[in-house]
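A quick aside before the break. I want you to see a complete sequence-to-structure record at least once, exactly as it would be stored in a machine-readable document. Don't worry about memorizing anything.
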Amino acid sequence: MSTPPYSRPAALGCGVGLRPTHYPYIFEHWPAVDWFEVISENFMVCGGRPLHTLTRIRERYPIVLHGVSLSIGSADPLNLEYLGELRRLMQRFEPAWVSDHLCWTGVGGHNLHDLLPLPFTAEALAHVVERVQRVQDALGRRIALENVSSYLTFCHSMMPEWEFLAAVAERADCGILLDVNNIYVSAVNHRFDPIEYMRAIPIDRVWQFHLAGHSDHGDYLLDTHDHPVKEAVWDLYVEALHRFGAVSTLIEWDDKIPEFPEVQAHADRARSLQERVHAHANARTNPTPAVAIDHSA
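That is the input. The structure line, written in tokens, reads:
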């Protein structure tokens, strides 16, 4: 792929995931959100209402395409038909970027409809890097990959998840969609330090944050996207802002979806936190000059 030198995309602000249940509200109020994340597969159709709806949204807002079916870690061949449809969607709607998940979703031609974790081995790393490069060649642009939540680990793993994710991004020359909720969920489930995770991620590779709610099942957390963002995840988000800066942030809500204003309020809270952290960083970098005291009086 012939691509320009790497640079992190410009930040879009704070947005929400586009969900059909919110279409009436959006078209009536055109709410003040910075951007929408769109599930790519929902719009891989020849025409009709979905594309008409997305056209209206795109006329007023930036969008990002976020897929769930790339299956970048699978042993199956890459689905070239899927990549062709994604490229056509990308050319039509000109998203700020395209993303999917660092996982596998099927094997032997069967889609398991879940985001399954990878073993963190040298073989898996080489396999994923080669496939990301081929995907980027097919699309003609870099993509971003998201860390998934997990509930098991492989005994063959030779490195921690954060080292694997960083290595994929650097060697494949792609971006990272850092899901803060997924880091928190996996940190609790596998008992690692989420701060150590974030410290290992290269700053300039992080294009976007995800924030979402999860369910507490007592001895483990489940990434369900059906609750408000937990306070512990907001706290971790602030830590992420300190390390990575004002990265584009997206509120995900996929089940028990509330009215649009409640989701929007989460995006507003994320924006407020970005502004506070940014102001704090500026104050440390450019301290207010001391006021000169007139001793002649």
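Two observations worth writing down. DSSP finds nine helices and twelve strands in the chain. The two ends are 70 Å apart (CA to CA). We'll return to this after the break.
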